[in-house]
Design goal:
With 337 residues, the protein is of the alpha+beta class. Helices cover 27% and strands 26% of the residues.
Length: 337
């Protein structure tokens, strides 16, 4: 008798439930935050030096080496900086949190859909998204979304407003350890409950207006998102930064990656000591690593195939991770080929 495998739908897709806007960047001063001006990009042409690794035939020959380093390394780049009397970066974006995770946007298998709904309903009933909601709230409070703009900041203030109820939370981002997800600070827990309620709902949503002030110093450089330009055409720039209507900005994808950097459940967290973004294979591209491999059965698909077909996972941590990937959204069907 042929062995029957729990079937995963060949067409299965979920919409993302954390939906950030692009982040708009302004220059202001810490003592007068109300007065802010949009940040513009400045194009620079610079003459750099040759600093890449050279072939052995060049670096071992003094004449060839001198000839190589004398070559001008000319570059045209975009840059962005505060004004000489401005010491604070203002970053503004909105975040929408959606519910209805029990209903995929596409699923072509009624039997699997019933099993999937049962599994997610049991998680929502037992956990109510409280752990995930708190972690997302913590990544708002600690201003992880500033990325490089967070490094070296003297002070960071995050203002969060619930646009439906007008409730406001104000966080001192420097209070939080960015390497940990363990904070139980009162306002973080309160905001987390709001986020969790929206995620657990059938059709409700939460809309947050988020404004962050980072005191980086007068005239200091700040860092919008960098564009990945596959076809530069006639452009000679070696670095192109992102703008929206002429305002220096951060990609919504970059903000979203920071907000979902809540995975401390991967096996090497004790070594790496850093939360990583929720991804099906635990991918961290700047390290060139996948921290959740199918070989170890810790990747999303290995866990999801059991979870969604009624098999109990080994721990709550695994359930939190699977549900966080579903919040992230994506295409998760199993090909029949």
């Amino acid at each position: 008798m042929a062995k029957v495998k729990n079937a995963i739908a060949s067409v299965l897709a979920l919409e993302k439930k954390l939906v950030p806007s692009d982040g708009y960047m302004y220059a202001t001063s810490w003592s007068n935050k109300e007065k802010a001006t949009p940040l513009k990009l400045v194009e620079k042409s610079v003459r750099g030096t040759i600093s890449n690794r050279l072939k052995d035939t060049v670096k071992n020959d003094p004449l060839k080496l001198n000839a190589e380093v004398e070559k001008a390394n000319l570059q045209t780049v975009d840059s962005c900086a505060l004004g000489e009397e401005q010491n604070t970066l203002k970053l503004h974006f909105t975040l929408k949190i959606l519910g209805n995770i029990k209903n995929p946007s596409a699923c072509n298998d009624a039997t699997f859909l019933e099993s999937y709904k049962k599994a997610t309903s049991e998680y929502i009933e037992q956990e109510k998204f409280s752990e995930l909601g708190r972690r997302y709230a913590l990544n708002i409070a600690n201003a992880r979304f500033l990325w490089r703009n967070r490094v070296g900041a003297e002070q960071i203030e995050v203002q969060v407003k619930d646009l439906k109820s007008d409730k406001v939370w104000i966080f001192d981002a420097k209070e939080f350890d960015i390497r940990s997800m363990n904070s139980e600070q009162k306002d973080v827990v309160d905001l987390g409950k709001k986020i969790a309620y929206a995620l657990a709902s059938e059709d409700d949503f939460l809309m947050l207006d988020i404004t962050c002030f980072s005191q980086v110093g007068k005239a200091q450089e700040v860092y919008p998102s960098e564009e990945l330009v596959l076809d530069k055409g006639q452009s000679k720039k070696s670095k192109i930064l992102y703008t929206v209507d002429g305002i220096a900005s951060m990609h919504s994808q970059k903000l979203g990656n920071a907000l979902r950097s809540i995975d401390t459940w991967y096996s090497e967290y004790g070594v790496e000591n850093r939360p990583i973004a929720i991804e099906p294979y635990g991918a961290v591209t700047n390290l060139g690593r996948a921290f959740r491999t199918p070989k170890e059965k810790q990747d999303f698909f290995s866990l999801f195939d059991k979870f969604a077909t009624g098999t109990k996972l080994d721990s709550k941590d695994e359930e939190h991770y699977v549900m966080a990937v579903l919040v992230r959204g994506g295409v998760f069907g199993e090909s029949s080929k």
